[in-house]
């Protein structure tokens, strides 16, 4: 980039003044609140005036950080109630292509460690009230581009004061500001831009606040070594990145069937547009109309470093606000600050009163002490084993301290309860229930977390849906070549890897797994953390096995446990199961062959009997000559004899069949008997555990001092 022009300077000034307007009309006030909330979260909870007063009075100033404990519990609840996104086809898409989109979304999540990023986003949102994803197609590690997701520093994203909707699509503009070094600028925009900025005075229209910040950042001690500053590392340049909406006239494709409008890229020439129209002859046409186009401007001091239409259809910023209404955002810490102050002050006062009680002092008659001086009494009077030698014990009297005001000891308890009530985190949901509380009551209290966090978690899941949509828009625009991804459709212990090829061209010219086309909507599906999911699954499987008598495979049960070597155990069981299945299959094949042989023998025997009867009939007819009565008697006699033989053979087959069924029944009875014995043993063990539990003495509830 050459020397900046007057218009560049004007555009840079316009960019800066827009930023200052948004900063001074809402963002500055939010930054102060967010800074206060973060101080309370990290334990800096006493203001300077109160802290100085207590130190001057030699009074304790305790900081019992309940807020951090509650936020930590909320992070665990979020992991246990995590959801994921799945795609469903809407237009020009199929269920199979939606599954490909799901696989690519899973691949993007794994590449960016989205589970950890989501927890970081949740934590920032609860503490500060605002948190942001930033989604871009990165070319640093892959020249074909890959989607990169990061969590932005909340203070670096400046919103327009007129924003009144959660969805970024309705925002007029959004700023991202960062302090960068020469090395950063050279990597992003080249050495020429760095030289122009570094050797040019800071513009006069810069606010004093930004001038002072640049000077302070340039004087930080970690930029110096051996007394010489490394100027390439000084983060003393404010980089302003503005993404904003603008109305432009643009040629657009119009789908005549659905009415959908798609802007034609500005760099396309007439020939490229004609090819598209000829490919969709009669289905697509063009028209010129006004559309909303996202513009992108990046400036640093008085230089415009980048100015163009955005290559993305949406803002790269995806927000998360725990509570959002008419542009006002509220986090979890905002409502906990006053109860936390009350808790710290009450516990500090209780400690101060107890300390004052131990060191209340003495009333002493002059000259009555025999074994020490008054100064020694002042130093040793509150120590253990203190002995004073007196002529008259009434000459020394301990001063009685002021009594603790009634109800004072309850205030700290109330403050703690108020914080837990406002945060929605009960002792039961944190696993701190009393021993005398019923199990069903604990489960109901833990289930109540779903209601308490429905609003905050709903907004978090809403942000995840928006994130998936932005990622889909970017890979539909950027992933236009053939790629191969690896997906694990199984689990960590039983992986089932699948290779998915995207945008694969066939010899016939068709495109398989084309991710660049189609419209999709998103839905939420439960996807909690593995630990909590394992425990819930194992509990359900045990109930299905015991209550419903469903034969759940053993390897499935083991996989849901937290055993450290369950992978080896499952592999060993699978090996034993394969060997057992082979033996059973071999036995079944042998029995099948035996049955076939018996059936074949039966058929052959029936055929032989039929031939024998026919031969006997012919012989009888030849012997009796032409006497029909005698021939009839002879034939009937032979038929009766043949029926006897047939019945005898049938009885033999029935006996073999009955014998086989008897053996199988005995084997089934043995299996059932084994199950009954196992159930009796389990019930006996449960009865012993209940008896031991019943024998334990119940802890008497503590009496509250009134």
Any key phrases for this structure?
706 residues, flat, 18% strand, disordered N terminus, 6-stranded antiparallel β-sheet, alpha+beta
Mean pLDDT reading: 80
Question: Class by helix and strand content?
Answer: alpha+beta
> Span between N and C termini?
78 Å
Binned strand content: 15-25%
Tell me the total number of β-strands. 21
Main sheet specs = 6 strands, antiparallel
Give helix % range.
Answer: 40-55%
Shape annotation: flat
User: Number of DSSP helices?
Assistant: 19
* CA radius of gyration: 42 Å
Low-pLDDT segments: 1-6, 698-706
Protein described:
With 706 residues, the protein is an alpha+beta fold. Among the domains are: 6-82 and 114-222 and 233-331, no CATH class; 566-675, no CATH class. It has helices at residues 6-41, 48-56, 66-80, 95-112, 114-128, 182-189, 191-198, 208-218, 270-279, 337-358, 374-380, 408-423, 439-447, 449-452, 454-478, 530-546, 554-559, 566-624, 628-695; strands spanning 83-91, 131-138, 146-152, 157-159, 173-180, 224-225, 228-229, 237-255, 261-263, 284-300, 303-309, 317-320, 323-325, 328-330, 362-364, 396-398, 483-488, 497-502, 504-505, 511-512, 519-526. The strands form eight sheets. Strands 4, 5, 8, 9, 10 and 11 form a six-stranded antiparallel sheet that branches. A three-stranded antiparallel sheet has the order 3-2-12. Strands 1-21 form a two-stranded antiparallel sheet. Helix 3 (66-80) packs antiparallel against helix 5, helix 10 packs antiparallel against helix 12 (408-423) and helix 18 packs antiparallel against helix 19. The protein is flat.
